[in-house]
Amino acid sequence: MKNRIRVGVLRETKNPPDKRVAIPPVTGLKILEKYPDVSIFIQPSDIRCFTDSEYRDQGYFLTEDLRECDILIGVKEVNIPTLIPNKTYLFFSHTAKQQAHNRELLQQVIKRNITLIDYEYLTNLSGQRLVAFGHWAGVVGAYKALRARGMRTDFFDLPPARTCLDMNEMYRHLKKITLKPIKILITGGGRVAMGAMQTIRVLNLKEVDPEEFLTTEYDEPVVCRIDPDKYVERIDGSDFDLMHFYDHPEMYQSTFKKFSKVTDLYIACHYWDPKAPRFLTPEDYKEDDFRISVVADVSCDIDGPLPSTLRPSTIASSFYGYDRFSEEEAIPFVDKRNVTVMAVDNLPGELPRDSSIDFGEALADNVYEALFGDDPEGILERATIAKEGKLTKHFAYLQDYLEGKDAVTV
């Protein structure tokens, strides 16, 4: 390890603004204690969830100029004019899936000889992600689903999550509401779904299994979470196998429609492969016994499994309506025949302090040893998209995208 490693914490520049940060003040102090040859410099920000004064009070040096830093750490994509040549950057670049709007970003990373490490691809030897915000997407997404229910029915009023200092304040508001007898469905079994269940459990609702959910009406609100074996089946009639489904999603068909007949509020927290079957069709929404009134699409798959997810929504304007019959967007909460949709694609940004602390701790526990010392497991190598002015071997498939020769996705 070199004598001194200078780490710069970037001000977020993506629009709409993101208040999160990868190194919160307390986490940074732990890093400095563990790695005495590391220095941390903070770029001032008037939108960050932790104020400049909070960093100053902990003894950090704030500076606009990070050119002397070796490693620059942000959260979302970095504004291209601010990229400093010959540095190592860590952030979510959203380039590895050939996103058209970020092609120039990757081109400039290559041109400026930047080493780009993407959080999304920091994994252990088993392929499990080491850092992610997914849990917080579920936490906030479920709260927003309940908020939409209250706004739609006028039975209760929850403040926006973004106005809460942290999760504890958000949950204090949630504990004040009372739900009428409704059925809440959650799809998925990973971090996102578990985050949603954490929020729902604040209400101490009865949790029921899928068979009961489908066949029983209750005089109290209930919740059910289902895994893929409950909403898809093999086309050839063979028994469901989870790994086979992940490897060959095109060999499955949806069985989700039966849930649309008994569900009032649906929170989508699953991973969906474009080769997998769509959950519902527009025609399914038009049927007389279609019951879902609120869809909180935490997964936010556009042109994906749910036809009502027409576009992403925003933290500032989180809801829109879906006209089941015209298949077009409508004003939310006006016509009760429409489905209310929540499809915010940066939900953790509504609880930036909590999600930043969680994310920062995960980096400290799982990544910084490799970043500041040795990397025997290849954690950084697997997540490095560009280095020494070219794509790395793991991301060589992006060459046509980089050169503009591909048919890119948005």
UniProtKB/TrEMBL annotation:
Domain Alanine dehydrogenase/pyridine nucleotide transhydrogenase NAD(H)-binding: 167-343
Catalytic reaction equation(s): L-saccharopine + NAD(+) + H2O = L-lysine + 2-oxoglutarate + NADH + H(+)
EC number: 1.5.1.7
Residues that bind NAD(+): 190-191, 227, 271, 298
InterPro entries tied to this protein: AASS (IPR051168), AlaDH/PNT_N (IPR007886), AlaDH/PNT_NAD(H)-bd (IPR007698), Lys1 (IPR027281)
This protein's pathway: Amino-acid biosynthesis; L-lysine biosynthesis via AAA pathway; L-lysine from L-alpha-aminoadipate (fungal route): step 3/3
GO biological process annotation, one example: lysine biosynthetic process via aminoadipic acid
Coiled coil: none
One MF term in the entry's GO annotations: saccharopine dehydrogenase (NAD+, L-lysine-forming) activity
Active-site residue list: 76 (proton acceptor), 94 (proton donor)
Keywords: Amino-acid biosynthesis, Disulfide bond, NAD, Oxidoreductase
Pfam families named in the record: AlaDh_PNT_N
Protein origin, superkingdom: Bacteria
Domain Alanine dehydrogenase/pyridine nucleotide transhydrogenase N-terminal: 8-140
Subunit structure: Monomer.
Protein name per UniProt: Saccharopine dehydrogenase [NAD(+), L-lysine-forming]
Native source organism of the sequence: Marinifilum flexuosum
